[in-house]
UniProtKB/TrEMBL annotation:
PANTHER family: SULFITE OXIDASE, MITOCHONDRIAL (PTHR19372:SF7), SULFITE REDUCTASE (PTHR19372). Residues 222-381 form the Oxidoreductase molybdopterin-binding domain. GO terms for molecular function: heme binding; molybdopterin cofactor binding; sulfite oxidase activity. InterPro entries: Ig_E-set (IPR014756), OxRdtase_Mopterin-bd_dom (IPR000572), OxRdtase_Mopterin-bd_sf (IPR036374). GO terms for biological process: sulfur compound metabolic process. This is DMSO/TMAO reductase YedYZ molybdopterin-dependent catalytic subunit. Gene3D superfamilies: 2.60.40.650, Oxidoreductase, molybdopterin-binding domain (3.90.420.10). The lineage of its organism: Bacteria, Bacillati, Actinomycetota, Actinomycetes, Micromonosporales. The chain crosses the membrane at residues 66-85, 92-110, 116-137, 158-181. Coiled coil: none annotated. Keywords: Membrane, Transmembrane, Transmembrane helix.
Length: 502
Protein backbone atom coordinates (compact mmCIF):
# COMPACT_ATOMS: atom_id res chain seq x y z
CA UNK A 1 0.00 0.00 0.00
CA UNK A 2 2.83 2.43 0.88
CA UNK A 3 4.37 1.68 -2.47
CA UNK A 4 1.21 3.08 -4.11
CA UNK A 5 0.29 5.80 -1.63
CA UNK A 6 3.59 7.68 -1.72
CA UNK A 7 3.85 7.94 -5.54
CA UNK A 8 0.18 8.91 -5.71
CA UNK A 9 0.72 11.62 -3.14
CA UNK A 10 3.88 12.72 -4.97
CA UNK A 11 1.89 13.19 -8.18
CA UNK A 12 -0.82 15.14 -6.37
CA UNK A 13 1.63 17.36 -4.46
CA UNK A 14 3.80 18.14 -7.47
CA UNK A 15 0.76 19.04 -9.58
CA UNK A 16 -0.60 21.26 -6.80
CA UNK A 17 2.64 23.20 -6.61
CA UNK A 18 2.94 23.33 -10.39
CA UNK A 19 -0.59 24.61 -10.99
CA UNK A 20 -0.24 27.17 -8.17
CA UNK A 21 2.97 28.45 -9.73
CA UNK A 22 1.30 28.67 -13.15
CA UNK A 23 -1.57 30.68 -11.70
CA UNK A 24 0.94 33.03 -10.04
CA UNK A 25 2.84 33.56 -13.30
CA UNK A 26 -0.46 34.26 -15.09
CA UNK A 27 -1.13 37.31 -12.91
CA UNK A 28 1.80 39.04 -14.60
CA UNK A 29 0.74 38.04 -18.14
CA UNK A 30 -2.98 37.39 -18.43
CA UNK A 31 -5.07 35.95 -15.63
CA UNK A 32 -7.09 33.98 -18.18
CA UNK A 33 -3.90 32.09 -19.13
CA UNK A 34 -3.66 30.45 -15.69
CA UNK A 35 -3.99 26.67 -16.13
CA UNK A 36 -7.27 26.35 -14.22
CA UNK A 37 -8.89 29.42 -15.77
CA UNK A 38 -7.74 28.55 -19.30
CA UNK A 39 -9.04 24.98 -19.15
CA UNK A 40 -12.20 26.19 -17.42
CA UNK A 41 -12.84 28.70 -20.20
CA UNK A 42 -12.32 25.99 -22.81
CA UNK A 43 -14.79 23.73 -20.99
CA UNK A 44 -17.38 26.52 -20.87
CA UNK A 45 -16.98 27.21 -24.58
CA UNK A 46 -17.32 23.51 -25.44
CA UNK A 47 -20.34 22.86 -23.21
CA UNK A 48 -23.61 22.46 -25.14
CA UNK A 49 -26.14 25.22 -24.52
CA UNK A 50 -28.76 22.99 -22.81
CA UNK A 51 -26.12 21.80 -20.34
CA UNK A 52 -25.14 25.42 -19.62
CA UNK A 53 -28.78 26.24 -18.97
CA UNK A 54 -28.97 23.30 -16.57
CA UNK A 55 -25.85 24.52 -14.73
CA UNK A 56 -27.22 28.06 -14.35
CA UNK A 57 -30.63 26.74 -13.30
CA UNK A 58 -29.20 24.28 -10.78
CA UNK A 59 -26.17 26.08 -9.36
CA UNK A 60 -27.02 29.72 -10.04
CA UNK A 61 -24.10 32.04 -9.28
CA UNK A 62 -22.13 29.10 -7.87
CA UNK A 63 -21.74 27.52 -11.31
CA UNK A 64 -18.24 28.92 -11.89
CA UNK A 65 -16.74 27.98 -8.48
CA UNK A 66 -18.21 24.51 -8.90
CA UNK A 67 -16.70 24.22 -12.38
CA UNK A 68 -13.26 25.24 -11.11
CA UNK A 69 -13.57 22.84 -8.18
CA UNK A 70 -14.53 20.05 -10.57
CA UNK A 71 -11.55 20.74 -12.83
CA UNK A 72 -9.22 20.86 -9.81
CA UNK A 73 -10.60 17.53 -8.55
CA UNK A 74 -10.16 15.93 -11.98
CA UNK A 75 -6.58 17.20 -12.20
CA UNK A 76 -5.90 15.89 -8.68
CA UNK A 77 -7.12 12.39 -9.59
CA UNK A 78 -5.16 12.32 -12.86
CA UNK A 79 -2.05 13.65 -11.11
CA UNK A 80 -2.21 10.95 -8.43
CA UNK A 81 -2.53 8.26 -11.10
CA UNK A 82 0.37 9.73 -13.08
CA UNK A 83 2.49 9.75 -9.92
CA UNK A 84 1.91 6.01 -9.53
CA UNK A 85 2.70 5.48 -13.21
CA UNK A 86 5.87 7.58 -12.93
CA UNK A 87 7.11 5.48 -10.01
CA UNK A 88 7.16 2.48 -12.31
CA UNK A 89 8.00 4.15 -15.61
CA UNK A 90 9.38 7.65 -15.31
CA UNK A 91 8.98 8.50 -18.97
CA UNK A 92 5.31 7.45 -19.04
CA UNK A 93 4.38 9.55 -16.00
CA UNK A 94 6.31 12.58 -17.20
CA UNK A 95 4.72 12.25 -20.64
CA UNK A 96 1.31 12.29 -19.00
CA UNK A 97 2.11 15.47 -17.09
CA UNK A 98 3.49 17.02 -20.28
CA UNK A 99 0.18 16.20 -21.99
CA UNK A 100 -1.69 18.00 -19.17
CA UNK A 101 0.60 20.98 -19.64
CA UNK A 102 -0.04 20.90 -23.37
CA UNK A 103 -3.77 20.96 -22.71
CA UNK A 104 -3.34 24.03 -20.52
CA UNK A 105 -1.20 25.75 -23.17
CA UNK A 106 -3.68 24.95 -25.94
CA UNK A 107 -6.54 26.24 -23.81
CA UNK A 108 -4.67 29.48 -23.11
CA UNK A 109 -3.86 30.03 -26.79
CA UNK A 110 -7.47 29.50 -27.86
CA UNK A 111 -8.80 32.26 -25.55
CA UNK A 112 -9.92 35.33 -27.51
CA UNK A 113 -7.16 37.93 -27.72
CA UNK A 114 -4.51 35.51 -26.46
CA UNK A 115 -0.83 36.06 -27.31
CA UNK A 116 2.09 33.67 -27.60
CA UNK A 117 3.01 34.55 -24.01
CA UNK A 118 -0.16 32.78 -22.96
CA UNK A 119 1.65 29.42 -23.01
CA UNK A 120 4.15 30.59 -20.39
CA UNK A 121 2.06 29.74 -17.27
CA UNK A 122 1.33 26.23 -18.55
CA UNK A 123 4.97 25.68 -19.53
CA UNK A 124 6.29 26.78 -16.15
CA UNK A 125 3.58 24.78 -14.41
CA UNK A 126 4.70 21.64 -16.27
CA UNK A 127 8.40 22.19 -15.48
CA UNK A 128 7.71 22.77 -11.78
CA UNK A 129 5.47 19.71 -11.62
CA UNK A 130 8.07 17.49 -13.29
CA UNK A 131 10.92 18.78 -11.13
CA UNK A 132 9.05 18.33 -7.85
CA UNK A 133 7.82 14.88 -8.92
CA UNK A 134 11.35 13.64 -9.70
CA UNK A 135 12.63 14.85 -6.34
CA UNK A 136 9.70 13.39 -4.41
CA UNK A 137 10.00 9.97 -6.00
CA UNK A 138 13.67 9.76 -5.12
CA UNK A 139 13.10 9.28 -1.34
CA UNK A 140 10.52 6.61 -2.14
CA UNK A 141 13.34 4.18 -2.90
CA UNK A 142 14.65 1.93 -0.06
CA UNK A 143 17.18 3.61 2.25
CA UNK A 144 20.30 2.15 3.81
CA UNK A 145 18.94 2.33 7.36
CA UNK A 146 16.86 -0.51 8.81
CA UNK A 147 13.12 0.02 8.56
CA UNK A 148 13.57 2.94 6.19
CA UNK A 149 13.23 5.43 9.05
CA UNK A 150 15.59 7.96 7.56
CA UNK A 151 13.66 7.83 4.31
CA UNK A 152 10.39 8.30 6.19
CA UNK A 153 11.77 11.32 8.01
CA UNK A 154 13.04 12.70 4.72
CA UNK A 155 9.59 12.23 3.26
CA UNK A 156 7.90 14.00 6.12
CA UNK A 157 10.28 16.90 5.85
CA UNK A 158 9.78 17.07 2.10
CA UNK A 159 5.99 16.85 2.40
CA UNK A 160 6.09 19.74 4.83
CA UNK A 161 8.28 21.71 2.45
CA UNK A 162 5.98 21.08 -0.51
CA UNK A 163 2.90 22.03 1.54
CA UNK A 164 4.51 25.25 2.71
CA UNK A 165 5.71 26.07 -0.82
CA UNK A 166 2.26 25.44 -2.30
CA UNK A 167 0.64 27.62 0.37
CA UNK A 168 3.15 30.41 -0.19
CA UNK A 169 2.79 30.32 -3.97
CA UNK A 170 -1.02 30.20 -3.78
CA UNK A 171 -1.15 33.07 -1.30
CA UNK A 172 1.28 35.08 -3.42
CA UNK A 173 -0.87 34.43 -6.48
CA UNK A 174 -4.02 35.63 -4.76
CA UNK A 175 -2.23 38.67 -3.37
CA UNK A 176 -0.62 39.51 -6.70
CA UNK A 177 -3.89 39.11 -8.54
CA UNK A 178 -5.64 41.37 -6.06
CA UNK A 179 -2.88 43.98 -6.08
CA UNK A 180 -1.86 43.96 -9.72
CA UNK A 181 -5.25 43.44 -11.33
CA UNK A 182 -7.93 44.21 -8.77
CA UNK A 183 -5.97 47.04 -7.17
CA UNK A 184 -5.64 49.18 -10.28
CA UNK A 185 -9.28 48.65 -11.22
CA UNK A 186 -10.51 49.37 -7.70
CA UNK A 187 -8.33 52.47 -7.37
CA UNK A 188 -9.51 53.97 -10.65
CA UNK A 189 -13.11 53.12 -9.80
CA UNK A 190 -12.78 54.81 -6.41
CA UNK A 191 -11.51 57.96 -8.13
CA UNK A 192 -14.40 58.17 -10.60
CA UNK A 193 -16.74 61.09 -10.08
CA UNK A 194 -19.80 60.48 -12.19
CA UNK A 195 -21.02 63.50 -14.17
CA UNK A 196 -24.47 64.91 -13.59
CA UNK A 197 -26.88 63.67 -16.25
CA UNK A 198 -28.37 66.14 -18.68
CA UNK A 199 -31.63 64.29 -18.09
CA UNK A 200 -31.87 62.74 -14.60
CA UNK A 201 -34.25 59.89 -13.90
CA UNK A 202 -37.17 60.42 -11.52
CA UNK A 203 -36.92 59.06 -7.98
CA UNK A 204 -38.97 55.90 -7.51
CA UNK A 205 -40.58 54.20 -4.54
CA UNK A 206 -38.32 52.04 -2.33
CA UNK A 207 -38.12 48.46 -3.53
CA UNK A 208 -38.62 49.22 -7.20
CA UNK A 209 -34.90 49.23 -8.02
CA UNK A 210 -32.69 46.19 -7.41
CA UNK A 211 -29.68 47.05 -5.20
CA UNK A 212 -26.30 46.48 -6.86
CA UNK A 213 -25.37 43.82 -4.32
CA UNK A 214 -28.52 41.84 -5.17
CA UNK A 215 -28.43 42.31 -8.93
CA UNK A 216 -28.00 39.01 -10.75
CA UNK A 217 -24.78 38.15 -12.54
CA UNK A 218 -24.67 35.61 -15.38
CA UNK A 219 -21.65 35.51 -17.71
CA UNK A 220 -18.87 33.18 -18.81
CA UNK A 221 -15.99 34.96 -17.00
CA UNK A 222 -14.42 32.54 -14.49
CA UNK A 223 -12.67 35.48 -12.87
CA UNK A 224 -14.14 38.98 -12.92
CA UNK A 225 -12.17 41.12 -15.40
CA UNK A 226 -10.49 43.93 -13.49
CA UNK A 227 -9.94 46.77 -15.90
CA UNK A 228 -7.78 49.79 -15.16
CA UNK A 229 -9.93 52.68 -16.39
CA UNK A 230 -6.79 54.79 -16.99
CA UNK A 231 -5.73 52.29 -19.68
CA UNK A 232 -9.18 51.50 -21.05
CA UNK A 233 -10.27 52.58 -24.51
CA UNK A 234 -13.34 52.02 -26.65
CA UNK A 235 -12.88 51.60 -30.39
CA UNK A 236 -15.77 52.15 -32.82
CA UNK A 237 -14.94 50.61 -36.17
CA UNK A 238 -16.18 48.38 -38.99
CA UNK A 239 -18.76 49.50 -41.53
CA UNK A 240 -18.59 53.16 -40.60
CA UNK A 241 -17.37 56.33 -42.30
CA UNK A 242 -15.42 57.73 -39.36
CA UNK A 243 -13.90 55.18 -36.97
CA UNK A 244 -12.84 56.68 -33.64
CA UNK A 245 -11.54 55.83 -30.21
CA UNK A 246 -12.52 57.08 -26.75
CA UNK A 247 -10.66 56.98 -23.45
CA UNK A 248 -12.59 56.70 -20.21
CA UNK A 249 -12.06 60.42 -19.55
CA UNK A 250 -13.38 61.15 -23.06
CA UNK A 251 -16.44 59.06 -22.29
CA UNK A 252 -17.14 60.89 -19.04
CA UNK A 253 -17.14 64.18 -20.94
CA UNK A 254 -19.93 63.00 -23.25
CA UNK A 255 -23.51 64.15 -22.53
CA UNK A 256 -25.05 61.65 -20.11
CA UNK A 257 -28.62 60.52 -19.50
CA UNK A 258 -30.08 58.53 -16.61
CA UNK A 259 -32.69 55.85 -17.21
CA UNK A 260 -34.47 53.10 -15.32
CA UNK A 261 -34.25 49.90 -17.35
CA UNK A 262 -35.01 46.27 -16.52
CA UNK A 263 -32.33 43.81 -17.62
CA UNK A 264 -33.22 40.18 -18.39
CA UNK A 265 -31.06 37.09 -18.86
CA UNK A 266 -32.21 34.61 -21.49
CA UNK A 267 -31.31 31.84 -19.00
CA UNK A 268 -34.12 32.96 -16.72
CA UNK A 269 -36.71 30.24 -16.17
CA UNK A 270 -40.36 31.16 -15.68
CA UNK A 271 -40.49 32.88 -12.29
CA UNK A 272 -36.70 32.88 -12.04
CA UNK A 273 -34.43 35.47 -10.39
CA UNK A 274 -32.37 36.57 -13.41
CA UNK A 275 -34.14 39.86 -14.01
CA UNK A 276 -33.41 43.15 -12.27
CA UNK A 277 -34.08 46.86 -12.57
CA UNK A 278 -31.47 49.56 -12.01
CA UNK A 279 -30.98 53.27 -12.57
CA UNK A 280 -28.35 53.41 -15.29
CA UNK A 281 -26.16 56.39 -16.22
CA UNK A 282 -24.58 56.49 -19.65
CA UNK A 283 -24.07 57.94 -23.08
CA UNK A 284 -26.81 57.29 -25.68
CA UNK A 285 -25.28 54.67 -27.95
CA UNK A 286 -27.19 55.85 -31.02
CA UNK A 287 -25.40 59.22 -30.80
CA UNK A 288 -22.00 57.50 -30.91
CA UNK A 289 -23.04 55.40 -33.89
CA UNK A 290 -24.28 58.42 -35.79
CA UNK A 291 -21.00 60.17 -35.08
CA UNK A 292 -19.21 57.25 -36.70
CA UNK A 293 -21.54 57.26 -39.73
CA UNK A 294 -23.06 53.77 -40.05
CA UNK A 295 -23.01 52.28 -43.57
CA UNK A 296 -26.25 51.16 -45.15
CA UNK A 297 -26.60 47.41 -44.70
CA UNK A 298 -24.64 47.27 -41.42
CA UNK A 299 -27.46 45.51 -39.60
CA UNK A 300 -25.44 44.15 -36.66
CA UNK A 301 -23.46 45.79 -33.86
CA UNK A 302 -20.74 43.44 -32.61
CA UNK A 303 -19.62 44.45 -29.12
CA UNK A 304 -16.43 42.91 -27.74
CA UNK A 305 -15.45 42.57 -24.11
CA UNK A 306 -11.93 42.62 -22.67
CA UNK A 307 -12.35 38.87 -22.00
CA UNK A 308 -13.14 38.18 -25.65
CA UNK A 309 -16.92 37.79 -25.34
CA UNK A 310 -18.85 38.94 -28.40
CA UNK A 311 -22.42 40.24 -28.26
CA UNK A 312 -24.44 40.82 -31.43
CA UNK A 313 -27.22 43.42 -31.43
CA UNK A 314 -29.50 44.53 -34.27
CA UNK A 315 -28.34 48.00 -35.34
CA UNK A 316 -31.90 49.16 -35.87
CA UNK A 317 -32.80 48.23 -32.28
CA UNK A 318 -30.12 50.61 -30.98
CA UNK A 319 -30.78 53.43 -33.44
CA UNK A 320 -34.54 53.29 -32.83
CA UNK A 321 -34.27 52.95 -29.05
CA UNK A 322 -35.99 55.75 -27.16
CA UNK A 323 -37.79 57.07 -30.25
CA UNK A 324 -41.19 55.69 -29.26
CA UNK A 325 -42.96 57.45 -26.36
CA UNK A 326 -42.22 55.74 -23.05
CA UNK A 327 -39.22 53.75 -24.31
CA UNK A 328 -35.62 54.25 -23.22
CA UNK A 329 -32.38 54.66 -25.15
CA UNK A 330 -29.64 52.06 -25.53
CA UNK A 331 -26.69 53.22 -23.43
CA UNK A 332 -22.98 52.91 -23.02
CA UNK A 333 -23.23 52.82 -19.23
CA UNK A 334 -20.74 54.06 -16.66
CA UNK A 335 -23.03 54.20 -13.61
CA UNK A 336 -25.47 51.91 -11.84
CA UNK A 337 -27.82 53.06 -9.08
CA UNK A 338 -25.87 56.23 -8.41
CA UNK A 339 -22.34 54.79 -8.31
CA UNK A 340 -19.72 53.73 -10.87
CA UNK A 341 -20.41 50.32 -12.33
CA UNK A 342 -19.37 47.54 -9.92
CA UNK A 343 -16.46 45.45 -11.21
CA UNK A 344 -18.69 42.39 -11.65
CA UNK A 345 -21.23 44.40 -13.63
CA UNK A 346 -18.85 45.74 -16.25
CA UNK A 347 -16.64 48.54 -14.91
CA UNK A 348 -15.49 50.77 -16.49
CA UNK A 349 -18.23 50.62 -19.16
CA UNK A 350 -20.91 48.30 -20.45
CA UNK A 351 -23.44 48.33 -23.23
CA UNK A 352 -27.13 48.08 -22.32
CA UNK A 353 -29.96 47.70 -24.84
CA UNK A 354 -33.53 47.76 -23.50
CA UNK A 355 -35.97 45.27 -24.95
CA UNK A 356 -33.53 42.46 -25.80
CA UNK A 357 -32.05 39.76 -23.60
CA UNK A 358 -28.62 40.41 -22.14
CA UNK A 359 -26.79 38.01 -24.46
CA UNK A 360 -27.98 40.08 -27.44
CA UNK A 361 -27.52 43.61 -26.18
CA UNK A 362 -25.60 43.93 -22.92
CA UNK A 363 -21.83 43.62 -23.23
CA UNK A 364 -19.95 44.02 -19.94
CA UNK A 365 -16.32 45.25 -19.81
CA UNK A 366 -16.82 46.51 -23.36
CA UNK A 367 -13.77 47.61 -25.31
CA UNK A 368 -14.84 47.55 -28.97
CA UNK A 369 -17.91 48.21 -31.10
CA UNK A 370 -17.79 46.96 -34.68
CA UNK A 371 -20.52 47.63 -37.23
CA UNK A 372 -21.01 44.45 -39.25
CA UNK A 373 -23.75 42.25 -40.71
CA UNK A 374 -25.57 39.20 -39.37
CA UNK A 375 -24.63 37.32 -42.54
CA UNK A 376 -20.92 37.94 -42.00
CA UNK A 377 -20.56 37.23 -38.28
CA UNK A 378 -22.16 35.10 -35.57
CA UNK A 379 -21.61 36.31 -32.01
CA UNK A 380 -20.62 33.95 -29.18
CA UNK A 381 -24.08 32.73 -28.17
CA UNK A 382 -25.43 32.62 -31.72
CA UNK A 383 -22.62 30.19 -32.63
CA UNK A 384 -24.00 28.01 -29.83
CA UNK A 385 -27.53 27.90 -31.17
CA UNK A 386 -29.22 30.91 -29.57
CA UNK A 387 -31.39 33.19 -31.69
CA UNK A 388 -29.59 36.09 -33.37
CA UNK A 389 -32.38 38.51 -32.54
CA UNK A 390 -33.79 38.18 -29.06
CA UNK A 391 -36.64 40.53 -28.05
CA UNK A 392 -37.72 40.12 -24.45
CA UNK A 393 -40.98 38.20 -24.08
CA UNK A 394 -43.86 39.21 -21.85
CA UNK A 395 -43.32 37.71 -18.40
CA UNK A 396 -44.72 37.88 -14.89
CA UNK A 397 -43.59 36.53 -11.55
CA UNK A 398 -44.99 35.91 -8.07
CA UNK A 399 -42.48 37.13 -5.48
CA UNK A 400 -44.65 36.62 -2.43
CA UNK A 401 -45.76 34.34 -1.02
CA UNK A 402 -42.86 32.08 -1.92
CA UNK A 403 -43.18 28.49 -3.16
CA UNK A 404 -44.52 26.05 -0.55
CA UNK A 405 -45.13 28.85 1.93
CA UNK A 406 -47.40 28.15 4.90
CA UNK A 407 -49.83 31.00 5.47
CA UNK A 408 -52.42 31.94 8.02
CA UNK A 409 -55.90 31.63 6.59
CA UNK A 410 -57.51 35.00 5.94
CA UNK A 411 -56.34 38.10 4.03
CA UNK A 412 -53.11 37.48 2.10
CA UNK A 413 -51.28 39.90 -0.18
CA UNK A 414 -49.95 38.23 -3.33
CA UNK A 415 -47.38 40.41 -5.11
CA UNK A 416 -44.75 40.37 -7.80
CA UNK A 417 -43.54 41.99 -10.99
CA UNK A 418 -44.36 41.79 -14.71
CA UNK A 419 -42.62 43.17 -17.77
CA UNK A 420 -43.10 43.54 -21.52
CA UNK A 421 -40.29 45.83 -22.58
CA UNK A 422 -41.06 48.28 -25.33
CA UNK A 423 -44.78 47.51 -25.00
CA UNK A 424 -45.53 47.97 -21.31
CA UNK A 425 -47.95 46.16 -19.03
CA UNK A 426 -51.69 46.88 -19.33
CA UNK A 427 -52.95 44.31 -16.81
CA UNK A 428 -51.89 41.50 -14.50
CA UNK A 429 -54.27 38.72 -13.53
CA UNK A 430 -54.12 36.15 -10.74
CA UNK A 431 -55.77 32.75 -10.67
CA UNK A 432 -56.34 30.69 -7.52
CA UNK A 433 -56.92 26.92 -7.81
CA UNK A 434 -58.03 26.99 -11.47
CA UNK A 435 -60.74 29.52 -10.66
CA UNK A 436 -61.57 32.70 -12.52
CA UNK A 437 -58.79 35.11 -13.39
CA UNK A 438 -58.95 38.21 -11.17
CA UNK A 439 -57.30 41.59 -11.89
CA UNK A 440 -54.35 42.65 -9.77
CA UNK A 441 -53.58 46.24 -8.77
CA UNK A 442 -50.73 47.81 -10.74
CA UNK A 443 -48.30 50.36 -9.37
CA UNK A 444 -47.23 53.13 -11.79
CA UNK A 445 -44.37 52.16 -14.10
CA UNK A 446 -41.75 54.84 -14.90
CA UNK A 447 -41.50 53.78 -18.54
CA UNK A 448 -42.23 50.92 -20.91
CA UNK A 449 -38.78 49.36 -20.47
CA UNK A 450 -39.04 48.54 -16.77
CA UNK A 451 -41.00 45.97 -14.90
CA UNK A 452 -44.36 46.81 -13.28
CA UNK A 453 -45.05 45.98 -9.64
CA UNK A 454 -48.44 44.41 -8.90
CA UNK A 455 -50.40 43.15 -5.90
CA UNK A 456 -53.57 41.14 -5.31
CA UNK A 457 -55.56 40.75 -2.07
CA UNK A 458 -56.65 37.15 -1.60
CA UNK A 459 -58.95 35.74 1.06
CA UNK A 460 -57.20 32.44 1.74
CA UNK A 461 -59.14 29.46 3.03
CA UNK A 462 -57.51 26.61 4.92
CA UNK A 463 -55.87 23.95 2.78
CA UNK A 464 -53.43 23.65 -0.14
CA UNK A 465 -53.70 26.17 -2.97
CA UNK A 466 -52.15 26.93 -6.32
CA UNK A 467 -51.49 30.56 -7.29
CA UNK A 468 -50.90 31.49 -10.92
CA UNK A 469 -50.13 34.82 -12.67
CA UNK A 470 -50.24 36.12 -16.23
CA UNK A 471 -49.75 39.55 -17.81
CA UNK A 472 -51.35 41.45 -20.69
CA UNK A 473 -49.21 43.93 -22.60
CA UNK A 474 -50.43 47.26 -23.95
CA UNK A 475 -51.01 45.83 -27.40
CA UNK A 476 -53.65 43.56 -25.83
CA UNK A 477 -51.57 40.36 -26.20
CA UNK A 478 -51.97 37.93 -23.29
CA UNK A 479 -48.86 36.22 -21.95
CA UNK A 480 -48.74 32.70 -23.38
CA UNK A 481 -49.18 29.63 -21.22
CA UNK A 482 -47.16 27.52 -23.63
CA UNK A 483 -44.18 26.19 -21.70
CA UNK A 484 -40.81 26.72 -23.36
CA UNK A 485 -37.29 26.41 -21.96
CA UNK A 486 -34.92 29.40 -22.06
CA UNK A 487 -32.99 27.95 -25.01
CA UNK A 488 -32.90 29.29 -27.72
CA UNK A 489 -34.75 32.61 -27.24
CA UNK A 490 -36.27 32.85 -23.76
CA UNK A 491 -38.65 30.91 -21.53
CA UNK A 492 -42.43 31.19 -21.68
CA UNK A 493 -45.29 30.00 -19.46
CA UNK A 494 -47.29 31.13 -16.44
CA UNK A 495 -45.55 31.26 -13.08
CA UNK A 496 -47.29 29.06 -10.51
CA UNK A 497 -46.58 28.60 -6.80
CA UNK A 498 -48.06 26.11 -4.37
CA UNK A 499 -48.91 27.30 -0.84
CA UNK A 500 -50.80 26.02 2.17
CA UNK A 501 -53.13 28.09 4.35
CA UNK A 502 -53.77 26.95 7.92
Amino acid sequence: MRRVMWPGFAGLASATLGVSTGQLVATAIDQRAGPLYAVGGMVIDATPAPLKEFAVRTAGTYDKPLLLAGIAAAVAIVAAVLGIVADRRRWAGLTGFAALGGLGAAAALTRPGASALGVTPALISTLVTAGVLLVMLRPARPTAEPGGRAGLLDRRAFVGGVAVAAAVVTTAGVAASSRILGGAAARTRDRVRLPRPARPAAELAPGFVTPNADFYRVDTALSVPRVDADRWTLRVKGLVDRPFELSFDDLLREPMVEEHITLNCVSNEVGGPYAGTAKWLGVPLAALLRRAGVHAGADQIVARSVDGMTIGTPTATVLDSGTMPGTQQALLCVGMNGEPLPLEHGFPARMLTPGVYGYAGSCKWITEIELATFDAFDAYWVRRGYAARAPVKTASRIDRPGPFARLAAGPVVVAGVAWAQGRGIAAVEVQVDDGEWAPATLLPEPNLDTWTQWSYRWQARSGPHSLRVRAVDRTGAVQTNERASPFPNGATGWHTVAVTAT
